[in-house]
Design a protein that fits this description.
Length: 75
């Protein structure tokens, strides 16, 4: 089973350093930087190219991919 998950910044300010956010997720991304890949399963990610970043959408994300992604973003 997979889900679409929306991640937003609730601190009231957009993230004005998208390079820092991308650096957190890059180890999980494919070469084209359109998908997070965990255990060989790709998950589309939207919002990474926005500047400033106001949120993300993970499309067709499984539990392990969400766990690894959210752990990196909480840093």
């Amino acid at each position: 089973m997979s889900y679409s998950v929306f991640v937003e910044n609730f601190q009231g300010q957009p993230i004005d350093n998208p390079a820092a956010v991308r650096a957190l997720l890059e180890p999980l991304m494919d070469d084209a930087r359109h998908n997070i890949v965990v255990d060989g399963v790709p998950t589309e990610i939207y919002g990474m190219d926005d500047d400033p970043i106001t949120g993300f959408r993970f499309s067709r994300i499984g539990g392990r991919a969400f766990g690894k992604s959210s752990t990196r973003l909480r840093r």
